[in-house]
Specification:
Number of strands: 6
CATH class of one domain: Alpha Beta
Largest sheet: 6 strands, mixed
CATH superfamily of one domain: RutC-like
Distance between the termini: 4 Å
Order of helices and strands: HHEEEHEHEE
Radius of gyration: 19 Å
Helix content: 25-40%
Structural class: alpha+beta
Number of helices: 4
CATH topology of one domain: 60s Ribosomal Protein L30, Chain: A
CATH architecture of one domain: 2-Layer Sandwich
Length: 174
Amino acid sequence: MRLGRTLTPTFQRTMTMSVRASFAFIVLAMLPACAGDVSLDLNLEGLLRERSYVNPRSAADPDVPPFSAGVMVGNTFHVSGTLGLGPNQTVPETAQEEARNVLTNVQNTLEAAGLTMDDLVSVQVYASDVADYDAFNEVYRTFFTQEYPARAFLGSGPLLFGARFEVLGFAVAR
């Protein structure tokens, strides 16, 4: 977790749990080096079961798709498949414009969890046409200030609503 960052209220508890889980793992790693009988009451399983959601489902609203934009488990954030469509689910004119939209949507989901694009460790890009590889990369490079995450760029065939790209990923809170 970076100093000076303000977490959204939804994730403050989860991040606190992540810090405790990290500390617990460090303690467990040190145990073999300790002499004598050491007994610790750590609830690691409970910590790892804690979950927080970005855009959780609402049973009261049938128009909400049946998935969350992202889920935090421990200190790992799972970003759902995200599209980069325009207003009224229209496909942007260019691959670059759609790439910018989809990556902005991923960025917004990460920010809702108190994370940044640089916290991504793995990304999967599904492309309806792999010929858009260079256009996607041109925009993708501009979204990172540190090392790039591991990534796959996969030809997928048709995507929902005629989109060119769908992006999903995993981020780990620092």
